[in-house]
Design a protein that fits this description.
The protein has 354 residues and is an alpha/beta fold. 32% of the residues lie in helices and 17% in strands. The chain has an 8-stranded parallel β-sheet, with helices on both faces. The protein has a 3-stranded antiparallel β-sheet with strand order 1-10-13. The protein has a two-stranded antiparallel ribbon with strand order 11-12. α2 links the parallel β3 and β4. α3 packs parallel to α4. The longest helix is centred in the middle third of the chain and has 16 residues. It starts with a strand and ends with a strand.
Length: 354
């Protein structure tokens, strides 16, 4: 196995940065590893207009470390009431790169999400016309659908008809978790790509459930059967342009995760590219890490590949038990602690110089 690997600086095409006093620390972790990131809009209230996105962008840029040229790429939250004019305004803005579709109730802060995709067709038609990508959280949230089958049902009920109705619409099928999603993306000629998280490459539902429930491994879409994990690994490491890096790093305070009704999301920004390197090494496909992390997403979004390089070295390091969550360092209670993925464990890759 190689002791180091040098790639074009990677990008994160699916990231949650939250807002307020937690923003600074979260931005710092991402800026250390990624040149650009697609920033999710599911704040409270959600980012639904260009003006709101501009204000959020300013708040992010205000806390980017001085030694970094990290570039946030903004998105707008698609609702039943999003208009074609809003899409046009977003396209004209240059800094809003996509719209995000959350089915209502699918994940954190998704209550304002889409209740019926047909209500969004005028806005989606404008996206297709202007080449604005639609980023899709692909799950059916009906109560009668098994949580492990939400993605499969979404493909049949929503995604396939959407692709038929809008054959030129650029789509990113976000954080896919099943072999059904891999097969659909691979088989269609539609301009669709998919992001894959590090945690879905490294884990399956046994990691979350065997030996007792591990709340920090609970995310949405939920971890699936090992056979689906293997399909994701094969897709991500294949070199195919249809798949690229999207961490879906989703920070929550410890007390919000370790509760009777714990929230969904894993925090991986502290070691994101290192975790992907670990997954690719396990698959003996490190030579394809650069395409997945640095080339494919940029091509899909029509952006230049980053000229800077990043070197990873094979050197173990200990993940902290927690990170400070917010700016009040004097407050060490669980409401101000962020538990990262693999807290207290070792990761075998690190960024050269860290």
């Amino acid at each position: 196995m190689p002791k180091s690997i040098t790639i074009h600086a990677p990008d994160d095409w699916h990231l949650h940065l939250r807002d307020g006093d937690v923003l600074k620390g979260l931005v710092a972790h991402t800026a250390e590893r990624f040149k650009r990131a697609i920033v999710m809009p599911n704040l409270v209230p959600p980012i639904t207009s260009v003006e709101m996105a501009a204000e959020y962008l300013d708040r992010i840029l205000a806390v980017v470390p001085d030694n970094s040229d990290f570039e946030p790429l903004m998105t707008l939250y698609l609702t039943d009431n999003t208009t074609a004019q809003t899409v046009f305004n977003a396209h004209q803005s240059c800094f809003v790169k996509a719209f995000k579709l959350y089915p209502a109730g699918a994940t954190t802060n998704s209550d304002a999400g889409v209740s019926d995709i047909k209500k969004c067709y005028p806005a989606i038609a404008e996206m297709q016309k202007l080449g604005v990508p639609l980023l899709i959280h692909g799950e059916i949230t009906d109560a009668d659908i098994d949580i492990f089958e939400r993605e499969q049902v979404f493909i049949e009920r929503v995604l396939k008809p959407l692709c038929e109705d809008f054959p030129e619409l650029k789509i990113v099928f976000e954080h896919i978790t099943t072999s059904f999603a891999v097969d659909f993306v691979n088989s269609t000629s539609h301009p669709i790509a998919a992001t894959i998280t590090a945690h879905h490459l490294l884990m399956n539902r046994n990691h979350m459930l065997v030996g007792g429930i591990r709340p920090h491994y609970y995310c949405l879409p939920v971890l699936k059967h090992q056979q689906h994990q293997q399909a994701l690994i094969k897709a991500a490491t294949s070199g195919s342009e249809k798949f690229f890096l999207g961490t879906d790093s989703a920070p929550h305070a410890q007390n919000k995760k370790e509760t009777a009704c714990g929230c969904a999301g894993m925090y991986t920004s502290h070691a994101a590219i290192e975790l992907y390197a670990e997954a690719f090494e396990r698959a003996d496909k490190l030579e394809n890490l650069e395409a997945f992390s640095s080339l494919n997403g940029a091509k899909f979004y029509g952006l230049p590949v980053n000229s800077e390089k990043l070197t990873l070295v094979r050197e173990s390091w200990d993940v902290p038990e927690y990170y400070q969550f917010g700016t009040n360092e004097a407050d060490n209670t669980s409401s101000h602690r962020l538990i990262p993925l693999f807290a207290g464990e070792q990761i075998n890759w690190k960024i050269n110089g860290n």
